[in-house]
Amino acid sequence: MSAQENHDMTQTDIALLLADAADEAEIGMAPVQAVIRGGRRRRARRWALAAVTTLVVAGSTGVLAVTGLPDGGHADRRTDVAVRPVPAEARHVYQPESTDLARGTYQGKEWRVSVDVWGAPRTEAEANRQFDAMAELGVKPADVRRPADLIGKVSYFASRGWGENRPQQVMFDTVEKFEQYSGTDLQAVATRLGYGGESSGRLVIGMVSKSARQVTCHWKDGTTALAEPTEGFSAQDTGSAIRTVDGFKGGNWFVCTAPAGTSYGSAEVTK
Amino acid sequence: MGDRKQARDAEFQSFMVGRWPRLMRTAFLLTGEQHAAEDLVQSTLERVFVAWRRVGSADDPEAYVRRVMINAHARRHRRRLKEFLAPKDDSGLVREVADTGDRIAQADDRSALLTALARLPVRQREAVVLRYWEDLTETQTAEAMGCSVGTVKSNAAKGIAKLRAVPGLADMVTHGGRK
């Protein structure tokens, strides 16, 4: 048998293995109505976004035109007002805005979840300094190979920590614009409370729209946890909450925690 | 006007019902997880619905759907929301650990392949799934991934090489541990 024949045979085998693994998917009924409803919501959102964009652009033009009128249109003066620079420090380029999402105790040590939001550097010098500041904190931005990749982009990191262990970044991204969450949009990830496998899937962290009033997390044993808008921390905290994160403009964040012995099933916006 | 809209909706429904099983299987291989696969297919089809007037009358609506799904998958991957299937042992994200008992060998085989797939870089995984599960040509795969044929070739070759190097998978192939 030639090397080529052997090569083809192996690829055929992999195709068969893929077909076999694909059979593992539970197909179920196609959720036609849900997709059509979702499609209509997307279309409406797109229109709404287009309308808002038009409004902002029109508004800016109006302001510039008016400020130019009284003394005969001194364009240079108008520009001075419009582009007053905001220092990098005030834009949180070198130090992120940090918000605690949840905390609790697991196996005698404190666990905590926080979100850091870094402002967008505007120059290479700012990007270099931000890159170094991130490295000092032990976070690594997504798809950034060199500091210049950070220019014009905001970065966020949701991290979890347990005891004295170094916090671990769980959800993070570096983007030109925050993705906007609306309606019942939800993105979530399930992780651990501690660092061993026994608490796998007991901590759920995610993002929802600013209008979401309740997130229901379903655990594998059939029980649920409710996360609702919360401010501050108290002894009555359940470990589940929806919170506004400073500097994060795409939506709010939530955390759910599962009791011992069960783990994540699914999560949805219920109010 | 209303009749035309109804006809378009009916056409979309028929398209969706027909393609759902195949899209689910492809998404399952891409994401490695049932809920993530459903989510990916559903959000893909929502986007397709929004553009259905244009897509439905196109020569190859399938190609458009594939492109949307691969884009959505890549976007999610970039966000590091890996649909609960962690690529590395130390990431702390939830993943299913395959049982090693040989009585459920077939389930293990599937699990081993899904785990191996999940560990491939996203572009390699997409190239492997589209070429060897969807059975697309290199040109069709390049269209779906929005890249050159050369990039497809290189990603598929690297992906396949990594899968071949997984010891469990090599055994499965050698011993015919599947249907």
UniProtKB/TrEMBL annotation, chain A:
Keywords: Membrane, Transmembrane, Transmembrane helix. The chain crosses the membrane at residues 47-69. This is Uncharacterized protein. It comes from Streptomyces actinomycinicus.
TrEMBL record, chain B:
GO terms for molecular function: DNA binding; sigma factor activity. Residues 21-80 form the RNA polymerase sigma-70 region domain. One of its GO terms (biological process) is DNA-templated transcription initiation. The keyword Iron does not apply. Pfam families: Sigma70_r2, Sigma70_r4_2. Keywords: DNA-binding, Sigma factor, Transcription, Transcription regulation. Residues 112-163 form the RNA polymerase sigma factor 70 region 4 type domain. The keyword rRNA-binding does not apply. CDD domains: Sigma70_r4. Belongs to the sigma-70 factor family. ECF subfamily. This is SigE family RNA polymerase sigma factor.
